[in-house]
Specification:
Elements (H helix, E strand, L loop, with lengths): L3 H12 L3 H11 L3 H18 L1 H4 L1 H26 L7 H18 L4 H26 L3 H20 L6 H7 L9 E3 H4 L9 E3 H19 L1 H11 L1 H6 L4 H27 L10 H11 L11 H20 L4 H23 L4
Antiparallel strand pairs: 1-2
Helix pairs in contact: 3-16, 5-11, 5-14, 5-15, 5-16, 6-7, 6-8, 6-14, 7-8, 7-14, 11-12, 11-14, 12-14, 15-16, 16-17
Amino acid sequence: MATDSDVESVFAGREERSPLKKVQYFLHLYPTTIPFLVLLIGIVVFGVVVGDRFFHPFNLSLVLQQVTVIALLAVGQTMVILVAGIDLSVGAIMVLSSVVMGRFAVVMGWPPELALMAGLAVGAACGFLNGLLITSLRLPPFIVTLGTWSIFESINFLYSKNETLRQQDVEAVAPLLQFTGHSIRLTDIIPLDFLRGGVLTFGSVLMIFVAIVVSYVLTRTMFGRHVYASGDDPEAARLVGINVRFTLLKVYTCAGLICGFAGWVLIGRIGAVSPNAGYNANLDSITAVVIGGTSLFGGRGAIIGTLFGALIVGIFRNGLALAGLQNNWQNLTVGALIIVAVALDQWIRRVSV
């Protein structure tokens, strides 16, 4: 018969964890800690190596502008990865949406507001198609979106005839499509001298707004809880009454809609409408999500981590460029960050609670 001392020793053994196990458990509870620390370390290191040029308000605002499109795509990609999926077609959906907006307004003469709505609708429809194929045919998301990536890209080139709509033409007919590229000075918002030279584009404002809305939906609504449950354990989610297939369909549709918004921001970013823009957007969005601490196996992650991930990529690329290193070194660094992030995710998932 077990004595009280035996029981106490058993529970004491369960409660005691080594320092490494405590760190593992903490990171399991707060997965955004790592990307935040990496971002902080990157800022400090490049601040020391590059100097005042790195911390100049204009340079920091430039980093934000450079990551805005990818961050917006990564927000939609985060929703998909949270349900243990993947979407390789986000870049193609973004470009197709931007081409529809531009050609409807400039070539077909639609009012810019309707052209914008048409582009957003195309983005949502492409996402809906991805979700429908995945849920109805029960095919792996990787295979489906790999196929639709080629399909959407081909439709884009066929519809646009591989023609770029010039910045002057878009500005003359549909200035609304370039609105996200307009900027305001930071000193107009916060009148502080150390912010002089920094600017904030309306595209970045839109990205932050979308990120806040999606974060609220994921953390404060029933739909968000269904997303996490479906990604963590779909069979258990079905047993408690969650319609997993319908949840996946809504997730992919929302991701497509966000890609439509990214297409609007892309037009504002480059000023023109190009069917060749956003070539690496698919992989860059996944990079931001993975580095941001969202698990590729689903059920764990947060939008704030994704934003950290996008900023990490932007900070490292910008800092290495200011330090005079070639683009190949930038790609090498980002690739190493991806491998480290996935390895850490695997280690964190093995935590014993």
